[in-house]
Amino acid sequence: MQKAEPVAIVGAGIAGLTMALCLARHGIPADVFEQADALDEVGAGLQVSPNASRILMELGLLPALEDVWSEPDSIALVDGRTLRSLAEVPTGAKARSRWAAPYGVLHRASLQKILLDAVRSEPHCRLHLETRIAGDPAAAVGEAVGRRPSVVIGADGLWSQARTAIAGAGTVRFSGNIAWRLLLPRAEASAYLSADRVTAFLGSKAHLVAYPLREIDGFNLVAIVGGKPAGAVWTGKDSRERRREFAVAFETWHPDLHSMIESAASATYWPLCTVDEGAWHNGRDLVLIGDAAHAMTPFAAQGAAMAIEDASELACCLAECVDAPAAFGRYEQARRARISRVRKRAAFNRFAYHARGPVRVARDLVLALKGPEALAADLDWLYGYGASGRQKA
User: Fold this and answer.
1) 3-class DSSP state for residue 33?
2) Gyration radius (Cα) of the chain, Å
3) Which residues contact 361 (CB under 8 A, 6 or more apart)?
4) Which fold has domain 7-71+103-171+276-346?
5) Which of 195, 232, 313, 389 could join 212 in a cystine, given CB atoms 3.0 to 4.6 angstroms apart?
6) Cβ contacts of 50 within 8 Å, gap of 6 or more
7) What angle (nearest 5°) sits at the alpha carbon of residue 81, between those of residues 78 and 86?
8) What are the residues facing 10 on neighbouring strands?
């Protein structure tokens, strides 16, 4: 592609801002369009695994991340009823050594701000707030800036408007699960929550992931349970009816965890939706990344990481290919197998985390037979993606 020609990016979330910075590294200017008048990231905590942090390092963002995030020493799997330790994957310094990049946890808003500050200070990037791009994205961008772009990148999330302009694109579907977010100050958290690790408490009907957030001197909790769809929204307000449904899933859990969940002052929930397999581009001038292309359930904690990987890969393709259609084809070829494998891992984790009866017993036995190093090796394909000497698959 001609590097002097600006690329248009629809959406200024983690995917869109990372996309702009990745393009800038290749000397490609970008206009980023966001319909909101301010960038307020929805959500709470975020796990940034080495496959994503490696790309953020390449963008020069590691010092800013280290100022706000924590690098837990391990990821632990724990029985939610008995609090018995099932398995542990070493992270912290060992993540940096094994996967050549850190494993960090932070508030989503902190990552959003770091990306936003970098975009605003990058001469190749221009941010356009309060600018809605709908219908024909290229035409809408042309109206907004007086120039029709040769490439539009849809980075506008699960309910993507850009996706509606692509024939054969995937359909949004409710997964059957609801995620609850809770933020707890350290003083209100259970003694079983550790500031040195990410803990996944497992149960037959639900699981709960907890990890520290330096920004609030407390913990981020994400509880995932079966539930009914809540409509086309990211978040829902807490209510007595919803809270009762939520509490039932944890009624057989350890009393300390159950009490902590029930007593949380506030919580938000959102339906976990996915985007089916479908077209990611129109073969001419429009392509999707991140959740807009392939939203998946969070059972592998890879949603944001896949968007960051997409941005890096697509930027390389646009820089190296002669035209947009060629770049789109190469991008899709590089990413389809990767996304499919991560989806399968998320589906496996859901099965394993929510196992019951004989399957739960078998799961616990298998985990007991595997040591920390073996469990870490099982993640080399995921966390080592893009590292020198490792396969990108």
Assistant:
1) strand
2) 21
3) none
4) FAD/NAD(P)-binding domain (3.50.50)
5) 195
6) 95, 96, 99, 100, 101, 102, 103, 383, 384, 387
7) 25
8) 33, 154
| Average of per-residue pLDDT across 234-247 | 64
Query: Are 3 and 26 a contacting pair, CB within 8 Å?
Result: yes
Q: Distance (Å, rounded) from C-alpha 75 to C-alpha 144? A: 46
CA distance 160 to 314: 18
pLDDT, one tens digit per residue, over 305-347 is: 999 999 999 999 999 999 999 999 999 999 999 999 999 999 9
DSSP bridge pairs for 152:
8, 286
Give the burial class of 361: count Cβ atoms within 10 A of its Cβ; 0-12 exposed, 13-18 middle, 19 or more buried.
Answer: exposed
**Three-state secondary structure call for residue 24:** helix
Q: Are 65 and 18 in contact (CB under 8 A)?
A: no
Extents of the domains making up the chain: 7-71+103-171+276-346
CA distances from 225 to 81, 270, 346, 350 (A): 15, 11, 15, 11
The CA–CA distances, whole Å, from 50 to 45, 64, 103, 295 equal 16, 16, 5, 20
Question: Cα angle vertex 222, ends 215, 55, to 5°?
Answer: 60
Read off the pTM: 0.94
User: Which residues lie across from 274 on neighbouring strands?
Assistant: 173
Here the tokens at position 67 are 């100022």
User: Using an 8 Å Cβ cutoff, are 386 and 392 in contact?
Assistant: yes
